[in-house]
User: What shape does this take?
Amino acid sequence: MAKKHILIVPGDGIGQEVTEVGKKVLEKIAAKFGHDFTYDEALIGHVAIEATGDPLPAETLEKMKASDAVLFGAVGHPKYDNDPSAKVRPEQGLLKMRKELGLYANLRPIKLFDELLSASSIKPEILKGADILFFRELTGDIYFGEKGRKNNGDTAYDVAEYSRYEVERIGRKAFEAARTRKKHLVSVDKANVLESSRLWREEIQKLALEYPDVTVEYQFVDATAMLLIKDPKRFDVVVTANLFGDILTDEASQIAGSMGMLASASIGDGTGVYEPIHGSAHDITGKGLANPMASVLSAALLLDISFGMKAESEVVINAVDQVLKKGFRTGDIADATTDKSMILGTDAIGEEILKLI
Ligand code: NAD
Ligand code: IPM
Ligand code: MN
Assistant: This one.
């Protein structure tokens, strides 16, 4: 029996809906395995701005630091998306959380459940067996460099910046992971153009000398975007910068069938944060349509990575697999062959997952 304290941070939009299912899964696991999990909840994003004026209130950050792990939902609201001049924005809360908690490594596994082969718009024979682990650097790059306006506000800039140290620590994590998998690492950059990418490549080349058992391939990000769709099976572990990783993993979500299937783990020096890669999805908010599997699979990553509970984590992944095998779907992963009566909403498919834990 283990005693753990988990902070639930649902955030905005469908973040609220899917995180509720993720939390129920953790509760069911605790009951099944006799663990003592305690929970607290905190605000981030638009809901935090509404309540306190701050997208990441000090109280939330303190609670995060004091917990054993965080299950996070999403942030974002159309009010800000459509108002580029807004000074206080939900996404600032997410970025500050990543920086303050030192969450420099964002692991985004792209795992295709066989039952979803036909849910993707990519041909099944191209997809079958695809299994990629992305390491997206999360606290550097153009996201955190200097930004501003000049020329009386008529010119805007965002500086992309990396230090050797930042590249080395994410690179090392990716090499270590490649060692436990197919020993193949693709490092993605734009070293033919960007100075920060040239430093990135230098550091990965240096690390490669320490990992002679891992085959390293260097790709330019534009080629990677193409190869992910052409031949996803050629990838094992991928390591890349913050912005490239953001874009490539949304693209890669189509290998797994939907954004609603993609979980992630943000780790660093302290508390780990586990979150779907998708956003607050205003187009479906409040309709009970969101696929909660990304949150459920994020809970599985939390159990495995932060708590070392491999068996518990596998029970969760297996429950998702079984629900898919039984034919249950949410709208985003349904296709022309899906029996309409098997298309369920967020809570109903959550209940089916819980039954199998
Ligand atoms: P999004 O990920 O919210 O949605 C993209 C599309 O995917 C939408 O059509 C949506 O309905 C669908 N989708 C996403 N998750 C789904 C799920 N679980 N089940 C079914 N369908 C799902 O991206 P967006 O529309 O570009 O952004 C909306 C807001 O979310 C913005 O404010 C953005 O800043 C924010 N955002 C936040 C995060 C985060 O908190 N980590 C990530 C991405 C976007
Ligand atoms: C993500 C999101 C965030 C990012 C935004 C909302 C700041 O797209 O978590 O992937 O770009 O990192
Ligand atoms: Mn993103």
In short: Residues 121-255 form a domain with the Isopropylmalate Dehydrogenase fold (CATH 3.40.718.10). The first strand starts at residue 3 and ends at 11.
